[in-house]
Predict the 3D structure of the following.
Amino acid sequence: MKIILNNRPETFDADSLTVSQIMDLKSFHFKMLVVRLNDHLVKKEDYSLTDVKEGDDLKIIHLVSGG
């Protein structure tokens, strides 16, 4: 499966994966994340329910705070 992940082409050996599975594969384990799939916001509780398929545009953005 080929997708766009954070504006870069990415290939996975599966026909579809959930957002959670991709986050595990790419080691995205930050507390504050914003996830958008094809420009739609994905809520944290839906990461394991939301399928990412061939050609999708997935953005996983790590929010940083501080002073």
Notes: Strands lie at 2-5, 8-11, 16-18, 33-37, 40-42, 51-53, 57-62. The first strand starts at residue 2 and ends at 5. The radius of gyration is 12 Å.
